[in-house]
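dumping this here so i dont lose it
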């Protein structure tokens, strides 16, 4: 009787559905749990229908991080003190002499001269002296601005490179015979290198090296960062013949358009991002360099996760490397230029990425390098001296989405043109004379920038144990720096 009383006389649709489906709640008969599967039939048996890797669905335009202009300032700031201000805007404060409280006589006051008309007719010189001493600064003659005649000297390793005076004749670029033809669709190198670049999504998997490092480089190896101010379109236009080369009419067949599969626009790791850059930027830069330099031209290659560019018949490959331009690809979440203005641990990650490319540049003995992410391209130069200062880098940031002015492809193309066998007029040659470890060129350093953090004691011990030295300027040569055959 009790069981029949609890069961409804006329079962509803929901009860009949659960009975026919064989679905019953084992813990409670609440209405909320009863209608959970009815309200969303698609969630029924989701473990059997959901794939292991869910696809990425983008509704609307892709949102990517933006590069802030205030994060690109690399020059050290000069603090101005109040003592350096002019005394004309800060008149001296007259201190009233203290009054003695031990006497009962009133304070002696100066005798008033208002009753004497003669004292009012004072000399003009006395009036001007009094006004200059006690008057409000607005009524006095303000100091006039005089332009400074200071001429900056050529400080070793300075960010501004003064090109030597050369009387070289304008360079004449002659196109290969296969490119000289009449008719057909044409284009220019400038339009080819200014075309829109692919916009990949951010790398989904960030690999962090938690285990033991190899000790080849550490983040405090980077000591000085400056802006590469003369890396712009104005400098390219001032090179004789270079602007004309960019605007020569060329057949479209000589300018191949790289094909990028849509699956590569969603890289899972930094390796996938590196393959995307190799399949797109390397193809375009090599095609542009073939037209600019001829059949024997610098080629951009992918060698074990590092972009190395040199001539195909380059005979300068030694034990210290032979790349004229080197580059690496890093994920935006792991390294970007905005980290310089963030917390100290973010600054360390920012410097660690620069220390990586700094080591590759010194190992290959080249002056030029770059770092590319999903958002930006950073072109790097190791000063302008033959033996550069250790840890001194000049940076120029270009956004990949830029389609006017200095684009990412034009920047990469010009970076490889700087590494020619014959350097461009007014530019430093690509080779740097760092020598081997026994030359101790790492001891040529400038003072560390004030914003760079100090390494911790555990990091110093690790560097001392793995590579034999911590401070590039103070520590002597260690046997771990030498090759195995020289130890």
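and the seq i came up w/
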């Amino acid at each position: 009787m009790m069981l029949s009383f609890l069961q409804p006389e006329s079962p509803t649709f929901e009860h009949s559905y659960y009975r026919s489906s064989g679905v019953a709640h084992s813990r409670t008969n609440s209405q909320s749990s009863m209608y959970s599967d009815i309200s969303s039939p698609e969630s029924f048996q989701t473990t059997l229908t959901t794939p292991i890797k869910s696809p990425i669905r983008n509704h609307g335009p892709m949102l990517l991080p933006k590069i802030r202009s205030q994060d690109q300032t690399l020059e050290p700031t000069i603090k101005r003190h109040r003592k350096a201000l002019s005394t004309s805007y800060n008149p001296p404060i007259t201190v009233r002499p203290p009054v003695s409280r031990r006497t009962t006589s009133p304070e002696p006051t100066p005798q008033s001269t208002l009753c004497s008309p003669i004292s009012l007719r004072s000399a003009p010189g006395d009036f001007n002296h009094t006004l200059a001493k006690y008057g409000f600064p607005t009524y006095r003659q303000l100091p006039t601005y005089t332009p400074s005649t200071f001429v900056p000297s050529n400080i070793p390793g300075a960010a501004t490179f003064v090109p030597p005076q050369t009387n070289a004749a304008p360079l004449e670029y002659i196109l290969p015979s296969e490119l000289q033809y009449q008719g057909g669709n044409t284009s220019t190198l400038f339009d080819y290198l200014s075309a829109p670049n692919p916009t990949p999504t951010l790398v989904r998997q960030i690999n962090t090296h938690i285990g033991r490092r190899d000790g080849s480089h550490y983040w405090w190896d980077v000591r000085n960062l400056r802006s590469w101010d003369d890396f712009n379109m104005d400098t390219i236009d001032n090179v004789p013949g270079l602007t004309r080369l960019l605007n020569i009419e060329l057949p479209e067949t000589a300018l191949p358009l790289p094909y990028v599969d849509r699956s590569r626009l969603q890289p899972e790791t930094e390796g996938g991002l590196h393959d995307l850059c190799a399949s797109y930027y390397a193809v375009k830069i090599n095609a542009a360099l073939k037209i600019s330099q001829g059949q024997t031209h610098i080629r951009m290659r992918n060698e074990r996760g590092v972009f190395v560019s040199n001539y195909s018949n380059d005979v300068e490959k030694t034990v210290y490397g032979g790349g004229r331009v080197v580059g690496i690809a890093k994920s935006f979440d792991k390294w970007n230029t905005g980290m310089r203005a963030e917390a100290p641990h973010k600054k360390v990650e920012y410097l660690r990425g620069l220390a990586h490319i700094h080591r590759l540049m010194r190992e290959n003995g080249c002056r030029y390098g770059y770092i590319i992410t999903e958002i930006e391209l950073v072109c790097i130069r190791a000063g302008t001296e033959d033996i550069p200062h250790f840890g001194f880098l000049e940076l120029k940031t270009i956004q990949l989405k830029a389609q006017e002015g200095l684009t990412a492809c034009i920047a990469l193309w010009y970076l490889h043109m700087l590494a020619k066998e014959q350097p461009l007029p007014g530019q430093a040659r690509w080779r740097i004379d760092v020598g081997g470890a026994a030359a101790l060129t790492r001891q040529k350093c400038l003072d560390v920038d004030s914003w760079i953090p100090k390494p911790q004691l555990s990091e110093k011990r690790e560097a001392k144990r793995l590579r034999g030295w911590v401070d590039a300027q103070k520590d002597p040569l260690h046997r771990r720096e030498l090759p195995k055959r020289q130890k």
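Strands lie at 186-187, 224-227, 250-251, 298-303, 306-311, 325-329, 368-372, 376-381, 392-399.
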